[in-house]
Hints:
Blueprint: E1 16-20, H1 27-39, E2 48-54, E3 57-63, E4 68-69, H2 70-75, H3 86-103, E5 121-122
Antiparallel strand pairs: 1-3, 2-3, 4-5
Amino acid sequence: MIHERSLAAAKTHITIAVVNQHLQSHPQEWLATVNCLGLIDHPKLIKLIGYCTDDDHKIFVYEYMERGSLENNLFRRRFYTGPLAWNLRIKIALGAAKGLAYLHKPESTVMCQDFNSTNILIDSI
Length: 125
């Protein structure tokens, strides 16, 4: 484990999520996506930790969200642990709105085009 700022060995470990994108985009599009994700820094948006590309294999490494997606918490039996409490639903909705507002601020060049329950991730709360 390497500390992201000093490049010295880090003493703490973090859990990550590895996402294989299976994209067949042009190298310029891939680089633009990586650059865009690398610039996003907001406490309500998941952080891109790293990436790897090899031919058609494109992998993103993100911070891990313990409870998974909102969709899984609402609809999937495998993840379903009962209805989410209303105070938790409000907290999730406010966090999602804050993240979306950050992405769509007037000076931003980012436009979120896929805002749905599968892309709203929930930490341990």
